[in-house]
Fold:
Amino acid sequence: MTAIDPTLPKKERILIAAEDVFSRRGYTKATLDEIIAMADTGKGTLYKYFGNKDNLFYTLIEEKHNKLMENLHALTAEQKDISGKLQAYLNCMLKFLRQNKGLWLIVWYELNAAHQGIHPDIDKNGNWVLTSFYGDTLPTEEEARLLRYYKVLWEEISVLADILQAGQDSGSLKYTDCKQIKAIIDPMHNLTSEAIFGAYHLFAGVANGVFHVIDSRFGDEELTSIIVDYFLNGHAAKQ
Structure:
């Protein structure tokens, strides 16, 4: 458990305690009682600042996500070629996921409603919506609650998709017209289906690798070099 300085402001203590409890317990099993006990404050104070459990968790995610996005944009902008941009993106993402594994496991698994057959989609107006494989519908409030976590992941993935799109546009990466893949309509990004598809798979591979496979003894830069080499040069042995 994290030791919290009792002289810190109450709101800051609650956030520190919440990060500790959510990371150890997961979203469903984390309780506000444990959080306020650790923060040495009252439940009324927590509700005053955050309203409810989900808003508290989202505040944690949003603060970390916003800083991550600043770093991803800044670090990738410094690089001139696609290989450098991929290295910068993946190195930053690996480090971030390792440091925030407990919280992003929750976003990745507990708050995507996949177990209910729910998945994100784009309506004809370009708005994010949640649809069900089984024809079920979610209450409007629940849909809005879950969508903001999907948007967090999409913003992180879209930086990678932009890199892949730039690689296609420059001729550094091959482009094959994937008409079978539905493009995401996003006014902030002019992306091919292939760039989106590639970004989703690469991001998911890295995230699942951090969550389940990658040995923590290996450094971020070493792992990044391996991933970029496999992505750019493939798995086939050189003839």
